[in-house]
Amino acid sequence: MSFTTLYSQARQYHHLPPHSLVQPLSNARANSDTRNRINAPNSRPRHIKLVGLHSGGARLVSALPIERWRNVQALSLAEADSPLAQAPSALDDAEMIFIVACSGDDLSCAPRIREAAQRRGIITTGILVAGAIVTDEQHAELRALRAASDMLVIASDESYVPDMLTELGA
Could you tell me where the Polar residues compositional bias lies (predicted)? Predict the structure, then answer.
């Protein structure tokens, strides 16, 4: 159905509120715009590695009920010299990596995770759980995590991480 046809049909309903007329027009535009569509099925489960950095991120990740989600594996890097930080072969089967850190965590191994992910072609998202007010110290953490991520998320609450996994259909 073309835009012109929808517009002429919408004019028949001039007695309705204006916002109810926009809906069919918006849907027609959205359905015809295929520029940003991904040609891959979205129902296929993705293999997600959830990497908790230092004490805060490792604590948050280890406290999550991972069995609740399919294809999610939790890894904790409480120490910068852990085996995963040195040789991250545990990331091999991942399709997405989420680096989780809390404000005040040591982010020194995040660049090594990023390098390993880039070599494998894996998308990396950094999640910094910080308070609602960002301090100067947190600005430095944000810059460091931004450099080690394809995308950076700032969460004001720890509940964001499980909510995000649920929304991703993990």
Answer: 23-42
> pLDDT (tens digit, 9 = 90+) per residue, 4-59?
554 555 555 555 555 544 455 555 555 555 555 556 555 667 789 999 999 999 99
Q: Domain 48-168 classified CATH 3.40.50.1440?
A: yes
What are 48-88's pLDDT values in tens digits?
999 999 999 999 999 999 888 888 999 988 765 666 665 56
Q: Give the C-alpha separation, 72 to 111, whole Å.
A: 22
Q: How many CB atoms lie within 10 A of CB 79?
A: 14
Q: What is the DSSP string of 64-92?
A: S-GGGSTTEEEEEE-STTSHHHH--GGGT
Show the 3-state SS of 144-163: HHHHCCCEEEEECCCCHHHH
Pairing of strands 96-102, 72-77: unpaired
State the DSSP code for 120.
Answer: H
For 136, the token pair is 């100067």
CA-CA-CA-CA torsion for 144, 145, 150, 156, nearest 10 degrees?
Answer: -140
pTM metric for this prediction: 0.70
How far is residue 83's CA from residue 77's CA, in Å, rounded to a whole number?
9
